[in-house]
Amino acid sequence: MNIKELFKFAFAYCGIVIGAGFATGQEIMQFFTNNGMASFISIILSVLIMTFIFRQIAKVGYIYDVESHELTLNKLFGNVVGRILDYSLVFFMFVTSFIMLAGGGSNLNESFGLPTWMGTIVLIVLVSITLMLDFDKIINLLGIATPILLIMVTVMSIYAFSTADMSISEGATYADSTVPPWNIWWIDAVVYAGLMFGVGYSFITIMGSDTRLYDVVKDGSLLGGLFVLILLLLLNGSLLLNMDAAVTKDVPALVVADAVHPWFGSIYSIIIIILIYNTVVALMYAVLVRFTDFKSKSYVTLMIILMVVAFFLTRIGFVTLINIFYPLYGYLGIIIAIGYFVLWIRKKVQRSPYYDNTEDEE
Question: CA angle at residue 113 from 145 to 21, to 5 degrees?
Fold first, then answer.
């Protein structure tokens, strides 16, 4: 076992969840924290589902040595349904992009006082410029930011637990039961896991394909899931301890970070922006090259159109956008997850053709 490759895989896996459904804290508030004390068991259930399905996704990516998610969707669901899911994923990748742009604008507003619309424009301009550059350089930035964020979340969570003025159960009384999509802890857990499948499906598939060792794919998925579980539990507990203030914020994680020290909160805010910036570039790039050739005239034209549309959609508001689109994205991810669960059952009941290239494993 190559330990370096194992941790590289696990950190990349963790980075997907951190970038799209964790860093600002709003995603956790929407799906978990506002369920009160039940949020902890909800997180455990959600991460168990995520870890299991993402492990299957990575293994299939490894076996087929794919360059995109299209082949695996067609194999699982057939060409017609696979095509529908393919286009649905592309649509929601764009939706996630402008939701994260809205989150970046809210972050800049709460951290530095910049008007939300202006912060969004700054990010859109930076993303647009970057989309005309070498995409590999952006991936390196994402890799640098993720471990730093892991350390910072751990530090601020420990601080919150050691200096809290109220207990977690007292913080739970501030929970707003109207916020979670279903307000049923186990359904919210499943929908959140589905959201992560939708966001991370393409990347995890390719990551499994690019990994040299099959053991790294299997064990790295488990280790990454453990990291996600620890971080979600820590930040959820920290938010409950600061629930009286966090419940009113678009970026509630900043309440926890600012409590450590104002400069700590400023650094955390910058890290969030870097993660949002990188994730939006990755998602928008995937959408653009799905329909156009890189740097072609149609590529530039489509990019401009999408960015203009994204800006006006971000005016709806970050929290509102999450409430509307994230649950829908979660349902799409659940459909994909069901396909992989059926695949796993087939593999256990009878030898599945999708796994013929590997030795039997658990």
Answer: 40
Structure tokens at 162: 């050691």
Query: Measured between alpha carbons, how far is 74 from 77 in angstroms, rounded to an integer?
Result: 5
Is residue 259 within 8 Å of residue 87, measured between CB atoms? no
Which residue type sits at 27? E
Distance CA 6, CA 217 (A): 8
- 315 φ, ψ (degrees, to nearest 5): -65, -15
d(CA 120, CA 311) in angstroms, rounded, equals 7
CA of residue 11 relative to chain centroid, distance: 13
Q: What is the pTM of this model?
A: 0.80
The dihedral through the CA atoms of 78, 81, 84, 88 has a sign that is: negative
CATH fold of the domain at 3-355? Amino acid/polyamine transporter I (1.20.1740)
Local structure of residue 111 (DSSP, 8 states)? H
Q: State both tokens at 219.
A: 């064990």
Angle (CA) 119 277 133, round 5°: 115
Alpha carbon of residue 323 to chain centroid: 15
Q: What is the mean pLDDT of each run of 10 residues along the chain (362 residues)?
A: 80 74 78 90 95 90 78 84 88 83 78 83 89 65 71 88 86 78 85 84 80 86 90 91 82 87 88 79 78 85 92 74 74 88 77 49 44
CA atoms of 24 and 107, how far apart (whole Å): 8
Measuring CA to CA, which residue among 72, 130, 86, 100 is closest to residue 290?
86
Is residue 62 within 8 Å of residue 217, measured between CB atoms?
Answer: yes
HSE-CB of 258 using CA atoms within 13 angstroms: 16
- How far, in Å, CA of 200 to CA of 160, rounded? 30
Q: Which of 4, 7, 9 is nearest to 211 (CA)?
A: 9
